[in-house]
Amino acid sequence: MSPYDPFGGGAFGAAFSIIPVIVIIGFVLVFGMILVSAVRGAAQWNKNNHSPVLTVDAVVRSKRADVSVHHHHNGDNMAMDHTSSSTTYYVTFEVPSGNRMEFSMSGAEYGQLVEGDQGQLTFQGTRYKGFARTLN
Fold it and tell me: CA 20 to 30 Å from 50, out of 8, 12, 43, 61?
């Protein structure tokens, strides 16, 4: 065999034989992360379902929006590329004990709340159920 044969022995042969191992390790790591994320999500969903629905006095302390931008490519056709975005809305409430809780909610509910609003917050675990503003 020629010493320049990349598929023969030597350094080139070792480099090419380790690539499948690296690919398998990468696949296992990615699959493991997806599995762990799914299990955590299912556990949180189950915990929320078994939590009582609570209604407490609360004040809206802060609002924020998280915008995610996604670029979609359609192969070699640059004219077919497009971008989309999604927004997740979060509101932080403070209860009389001084504890703060942040919940995600729809854009419609987010738009109706103003920092400083006082009212009754209804939630179940980490799940936002609603906010009824009280008039002062």
Answer: 61
Using an 8 Å Cβ cutoff, are 103 and 81 in contact? no
The strand pairing partners of 44, in sequence order, are: none
DSSP the chain: --TT-TTSSHHHHHHHHHHHHHHHHHHHHHHHHHHHHHHHHHHHHHHHHHSPEEEEEEEEEEEEEEEEEEEE--TT-GGG-EEEEEEEEEEEEE-TTS-EEEEEE-HHHHHH--TT-EEEEEEETTEEEEEEE---
pTM above 0.85, yes or no: no
**Nearest-angstrom CA–CA distance, 63 and 85:** 19
Nearest to 113 by CA among 131, 98, 101: 131
Position 95 pLDDT exceeds 90: yes
Nearest to 119 by CA among 62, 64, 60: 60
Q: How far apart are the first and last CA of the chain?
A: 89
